[in-house]
Design goal:
Length: about 500
């Protein structure tokens, strides 16, 4: 135990000064209870006559502390409480005496230290989120933006460094009841406390923001309790929207919540409880006028672009695939990837020129799932096939093909509008649908992913022979030799 008997009064305006003083006091083994820490001169009247020391401890030996303890001490030093310097010295004293559990949350002092550092981090986060800058009229030497904030803890310097990084060379001033920070575009300058009126500026941008805020407010979806839990009440008085939110909440409670509901709900006839499908329960929306605007399902959110069909607008044969692949999604063209190369080769063998047919897909957006750095194909769901069918119908109506080749099961289900349609029984067997011939073959991608070489060769033959059948049906027109053709291709398929 130290033999030191006197009381020491230390003036500590900052963490750096406290650290220097604490290092000297530890070197002299001055216990915590014999030190009176002050932040301003003149606070030592209670201990008049006690020795007051200047902070001239630059020659004190350095302390070797773990990074975790240094960060906790520096963070907790910003916590606004009267005994913070005394408490931090107590923590340091205990550590130096071998009580290393002082940094553990299980220790009473450790729990308080962690709590103080956590509260300071939360205050920094809140200040990042709730500082609102107002733009000043241009004036030489004056900051362009000004903000007012009332922090609970002393986090202004850290937050100022954050905004200096975020706002670049734009000048600004943040005023608080205790201090201010000015950024001139190059350097941060600490200043004195300012009055609230320093930030009372008429800002046209703020008026525009309030107009936007009112326009997006939906009284039918208001949850006042959730709103209050997300933004603590002490911040509302300095937020621009804080001046209009109470009135909007009051209006919602007084009837606007009911009138904010979709008008179509009030027009429904019958009982109060109406069983209705999710699709019909959606509010009425105007149909998309272009494929790029389509939002009928969620596939557009992760796709690069919609991929429309290509080919002559008077083509007599239309080839319908499943959906764009990775390369098609990037290029905006159907069948330009590996599966497109297989299809191109099959068309050449079948004597069918690519520029004579119309190529499209049942689903117009690429559905995929991540696998490392790759985007792997994922089969569209039936609801996604149904959502995209209108675009296929539009193409059928515009092109008016006489023969459609369904490349795979998804295409067949979309063409027939039958989610239970099976592909295998129809391979090699054309059928009439809505006045057109439908020929079913494998999708070219199956040729690439089939597990056995024989399966790949057989699938490729089916595609070539299906394209030959499409040409034959187009040439015959009326299909007089359909029965003979069906028998021929059934025999080929099973050989």
């Amino acid at each position: 135990m130290s033999g030191f008997d006197g009381r020491v009064v230390r003036l500590v305006p900052s963490f750096a000064d406290w650290r220097m003083a604490a290092r000297a006091l530890l070197a002299r083994q001055v216990p915590p209870e014999q030190i009176e820490w002050q932040t301003q001169a003149g606070e030592g009247d209670l201990f008049s006559g006690a020795p007051t020391e200047a902070n001239n401890d630059s020659c004190a030996p350095p302390l070797h502390l773990p990074r975790q303890l240094v960060e906790l001490l520096e963070g907790a030093a910003c916590f606004s409480v009267a005994d913070r310097w005394a408490f931090l010295y107590k923590v340091l004293w205990r550590w130096q005496r071998g009580e290393h559990d002082v940094v553990s949350p299980a220790d009473a002092d450790g729990a308080r230290l962690h709590g103080m550092a956590k509260a300071v981090r939360r205050e920094e986060h809140d200040m990042h989120a709730y500082v609102r800058f107002r733009e000043r009229p241009p004036e030489a030497g004056a900051p362009r933006f000004v903000a007012w904030f009332e922090p609970t803890h002393e986090v202004l310097p850290q937050v100022a460094r954050h905004f200096a990084r975020r706002m670049g060379s734009i000048s600004w001033l943040i005023a608080t009841p205790d201090a201010s920070m000015l950024w001139d575009g190059h350097t941060l300058h600490a200043g004195p406390a300012l009055m609230r009126g320093a930030a009372d500026i008429d800002d046209a941008g703020e008026a525009l923001w309030l107009t936007y805020y009112r326009s997006i407010f939906n009284p039918a979806r208001l949850n006042a309790e959730l709103l209050r839990s997300h933004i603590p009440s002490r911040f509302w008085k300095n937020l621009p929207e804080g001046a209009i939110v109470p009135a909007m909440v009051s209006s919602a409670a007084n009837g606007e919540r009911r009138t904010g509901q979709s008008a179509t709900v009030g027009q429904r006839q019958g009982a109060a409880m109406i069983p209705i499908s999710p699709e019909r329960a959606q509010p009425a929306r105007a149909k998309a006028s272009t494929l790029d605007q389509c939002r009928r399902c969620d596939l557009w959110q992760s796709a690069t672009q919609a991929v429309p069909g290509t080919g002559p607008r008077d083509a007599r044969i239309m080839l319908v695939g499943e959906q764009p692949g990775d390369q098609e999604d990037l290029a905006g063209q159907p069948f330009v990837g590996p599966a497109g190369a297989v299809l191109e080769r099959a068309m050449q063998e079948a004597g069918l020129a690519r520029d004579s047919v119309y190529l499209t897909n049942a689903v117009k957006h690429f559905k995929w799932e991540p696998r490392g750095k790759r985007r792997l194909h994922k089969t569209p769901a039936q609801r996604e096939i149904a959502a995209c069918h209108d675009w296929l119908e539009e193409e059928l109506h515009s092109v008016k093909p006489q023969v459609i080749v369904a490349l795979g099961s998804t295409a067949l289900k979309s063409i027939l509008q039958d989610g239970s349609a099976a592909m295998t029984p129809l391979i090699g067997t054309p059928l009439q649908h809505d006045g057109r011939w439908i020929v079913t073959v494998y999708h070219p991608s199956y040729v690439l992913r089939a597990p056995e070489e024989e399966n790949r060769r057989q699938a490729y033959r089916v595609i070539v022979e299906g394209l030959q059948l499409a040409r034959k049906l187009l040439a015959e027109g009326t299909g007089k030799q359909t029965q003979q053709t069906q028998g021929q291709f059934r025999q080929t398929d099973t050989s």
